[in-house]
Specification:
single chain; 240 residues; alpha/beta; 5-stranded antiparallel sheet; 6 helices; 29% helix
Amino acid sequence: MNIAILDDSKEDLRQVKSVISSYYESQNTSADIHLYSSAEAFFTKYIPGFYNLIIMDIYMGSMTGMDAARKLREARDTAALIFISSSDSFAVESYDVQASYYLLKPFDPEKLCRILSTIQFRQSQNSRYIELISDRTPVKIPVRSILYVDTYRNAVQVHTTDAGIIRSYITFQKFEELLEGMKCFLSCYRGCIVNMDHIEKSTDEGFVMDNQELVTVRKRGSNAIKKAYLEYLFSSDSDK
């Protein structure tokens, strides 16, 4: 794990690093932790895609944590983000940058560990593959590459980030069975499921994915669907 912690408070940097180090040691996971006192200092050494996890304060001089998060997402960086702030002023806005969680200072170390556990689960989940038959050929599809899945005529269509649309003549029910236990998938309407890890924002019509496609949500029960997404995004217990 490559981890960056951004905070202009030396004491907060020390405390967060201590909690993270202890957590990953308990998981027998190697963690290379980098500390930065400002977002500007972080970006002088930033390499897109290098970090698995970035934890940052909101208020850090001229570039805020929210500004830094937007810059990361504009660079298509998919690192998990955790905000730790003395104010909840940006809690709602953090949805727009797909933050994994928003903690208030002084933070609870046990809660941060639960969040790290959730992130670790999701990252291991995204390393999984499913296998389908497409054009009579077995195809392995990384779960992390699935944007959403719908149906067209008698085929299931898997919309992916890197291989376009993969079609397979399997029932939708059988396809859903392949995803059993993967909490990142959410049903938008009958015959359509979305990978919540690729949602950029929620709108009145449905979900805008990070490739800018809109996946609509059925009108009946739409509030419950969007609530399920928000719970997945922000609940540290969503993967338990």
